[in-house]
Structures are given as C-alpha cells and as structure tokens.
Design brief:
The protein is an alpha/beta fold and 297 residues long. The protein folds into two domains: 43-194, no CATH class; 202-286, Rossmann fold (3-Layer(aba) Sandwich). Helices cover 33% and strands 22% of the residues. The chain has a seven-stranded mixed beta sheet with strand order 3-4-2-5-1-6-7, sandwiched between helices. It has a five-stranded mixed beta sheet with strand order 8-12-11-9-10. Helix 9 (265-271) links the parallel strand 11 (260-264) and strand 12 (278-287). Helix 6 packs across helix 9. The model has no long low-confidence stretch (mean pLDDT 94).
C-alpha cells in the first residue's frame, strides 16, 4: 500500500493524469499559503557565520536531482573536507560520524544509503549525518576540516553558506501540496542555479555486466535512469530509500531467470553484503570549471 501511494505521489507531481491535474488546481490555495509561510520563515531567520567555508548543494523539488554524485565530484577536489547530511531513510537518530579520515565507523542502517555512498567513494573525506546541521558543522570543525558541503540544505537559512541549486524540469511549478516544490528561489537570497549538461555532465559506467540483467532500484523518479540503461530483461521499482531484504531480491532473480541484478550505487551500498550476483550502474559527474570557480571565489 505504501509503495503504491509513493508512486502515485511521484506521478501526481511530475506526470499527472487529468484527475491529478484537477486535484492540483483545487489545492492551489493551500500552496499559496505554504509558499507564504516558507517566505516568512526565510525572512525571519538570520544566517549564523560558523567561520568556515560552507557550500550547500541541493534542489527545490521533492524527489531526486542527482545531487549525490555531484557533491561527490566536488568534494574530491578538496583536502580536509566534510560532508554533512540529514541521512534520509536511516534507522537511527541524532548525530553520527559515519566516516572519519581513515575508516567507515557505522553500517548502512545507521548512516542511510546516501551517506554510505559518500563514505565509500570519498576515502579522505569526513561524513556526518545529523538532523541538526549546525551540530554537524560544529562537530566537523572540531575534527579540523576546512571545507564543508551540506547535502540538500537550501532551506537552512540560519546558516551562512553558498547555495547551489540543481535545476529540475517540471511541468508543475507549484509549491506543496499542489506541486513538487518545497520552496522558492527567493529574490533576496544569493543562489547559483546549475544545469545538467552545462554546469556538470553525467558519465555512467556499467560494471560486472551480466548477459541477462534485471533492473532493481529504489531511487526517486526511477525513469531518470532510462537514458543510461543497457538492455535489461525487466525493471523493478521500489520507493526511494527502500530497505531491501535478500529473499525478495532472490525471488526477482529466479522469477526473471536473470544472471544478475542491475543496481545503482545507492542500491548497491544496501545489498552488497547479500551474496547476490550484482551488476552496477555507476554514475560519475564531470564538473565545469566555472562551477569550481564559483565555489573557490
């Protein structure tokens, strides 16, 4: 039931039916009220200076935008860097140092999938999960970092930072609940909006390919993968941040008579210990020099 609701909401936001469009129009008064509240919240907050360079990378809409591989690519360019994120989908609360400069300290259940991607792909970086980003920043400073990247923190207006927003195309530009936008680009807030294919380019590598692969993935708006997919025998979509169990994955393998399951890195970090044949759709990002200049300026 939960799975159906999540996919219904994604369709409602990004590819609505006629009935869903009607519902969206009826909810517009609530959207206007929501936007007003978010604007007043922005205006009432004063940005605290933590005395360290902080860059936030995210998107304004509900659902994925590819920020994790972009943050990974940016963080690789720095020494003494920390990445701080909320840790959606984790089975823990509070602040955890997922990885120090030397090793990973917790498992994926505690860290969440996105934090574990950073921990595995950035051997020199510190990775911290915390609902309270300010606590995370203080902890990172105690650990001696010189550069901090916040994953998806545009709305944290009480933190002095530079904001980078990934543009996501949508036919519905309304705020919640009528549309997918959590907040607006406020005119009196300094923000750099970046575009896929201009400010950064995606490169996909297929690793450990099988002759017959079944796609299994738990990312938001999984149809985004279609442009990068090799030939697959079937596609199996799960809700974003879904926690897989081994039995259901073995059932897909048997049902499709597949040699392997094709997964993204976000899925891989959660199931790599299952001893199941996996093929990996690994996404890396090439960053344009103008974006690096913006961060370094």
């Amino acid at each position: 039931m939960k799975k159906r609701v999540i996919f219904w909401v994604e369709k409602y936001f990004y590819n609505p039916s006629a009935l869903q469009k009607t519902l969206s129009i009826l909810l517009l008064p609530l959207s206007y009220l929501y936007c007003l509240i978010m604007y007043l919240r922005f205006k009432m907050q004063k940005a605290e200076d933590f005395g360290i360079d902080i860059v936030s990378v995210g998107n304004l809409n509900v659902g994925g935008s590819g920020k994790t591989p972009l943050v990974t690519a940016l963080a690789k360019e720095y020494e003494d860097v920390a990445i701080i994120l909320r840790g959606y989908g984790r089975e823990s609360q509070g602040l955890y140092v997922v990885k120090d400069r030397e090793k990973i300290l917790v498992d994926v259940q505690i860290s969440g999938d996105e934090a574990m991607i950073y921990a595995q792909k950035l051997p020199k970086a510190i990775v911290i999960v915390s609902e309270d980003r300010k606590e995370g920043i203080i902890k990172a400073k105690e650990m001696g970092v010189k550069q901090i990247f916040l994953d998806d923190a545009y709305s944290k207006h009480s933190i002095k930072k530079r904001d980078i927003i990934i543009y996501v195309e949508s036919k519905n530009s309304a705020c919640l609940p009528s549309g997918p936008f959590r907040e607006r680009l406020w005119s009196d807030k300094d923000v750099r909006v970046i575009y896929d294919g201009i400010d950064f380019k995606r490169h996909v590598t297929l690793k450990n390919a099988g002759e017959k692969m079944a796609l299994v993935t738990a990312i938001a708006r999984p149809e985004r993968l279609d442009d990068f997919l090799p030939k697959v025998s079937s596609k199996h979509y799960f809700p974003d941040h879904y926690s897989f169990n081994k039995e259901e994955l073995l059932e897909i393998l048997e049902q499709e008579k597949a040699d392997s399951l094709l997964v993204t890195y976000k899925d891989f970090v959660k199931i790599q210990g299952f001893d199941i044949p996996l093929s990996l759709l690994d996404l890396d990002v090439e960053v344009d020099s103008s974006l690096m200049n913006f961060i370094n300026s």
